[in-house]
Design a protein that fits this description.
mainly beta; globular; 0% helix; OB fold (Dihydrolipoamide Acetyltransferase, E2P)
């Protein structure tokens, strides 16, 4: 596990009451736990995170979100076939 603090953007591809899922650079999955989303945001009946103080602030499917990367892990899976003739 690596700890890093930088900002990047992701496109929301999943919204649940537990987390906000995003695709970063069209390749990597990122997830923000509901515990780390500001308390004033709530999930509505359309499965969008809405700011209760400003209804124009909405996180929904397909929207781009700027967020802080706090930690990441890299897992490599290497599949190969060894052939002989």
């Amino acid at each position: 596990m690596y700890y890093i603090y930088l900002y990047t953007a992701g496109v929301v591809n999943r919204v649940t009451v537990d987390h906000l899922g995003m695709l970063v650079f069209g390749t990597f999955n990122a997830s923000i736990s509901a515990k780390l989303i500001r308390n004033r945001f709530r999930v509505d009946e359309n499965s969008e995170w809405i700011d209760t103080k400003n209804s124009q602030h909405v996180f929904g499917i397909g929207q781009t979100v700027l967020f802080e990367v706090m930690r990441y892990s890299i897992v490599f899976y290497l599949d190969f076939v060894l052939n002989s003739m």
